[in-house]
Amino acid sequence: MHYLLNHLDDAWALTVIHLRLSLVPVLIGLAIAVPLGVLVQRAPIPRRLTTATASVVFTIPSLALFVVLPLIIGTRMLDEANVIVALTAYTTALLVRTVLEALDAVPAQVRDAATAVGYPPVKRILKVELPLSIPVLVAGLRVVVVTNIAMVSVGSVIGIGGLGTWFTAGYQTNKSSQIFAGIIALFLLAVVIDLLIDGAGRLATPWERAARKARRRSVVAPIVGGAR
Question: What residue ranges of the chain have pLDDT lower than 50?
Answer without folding.
Answer: none
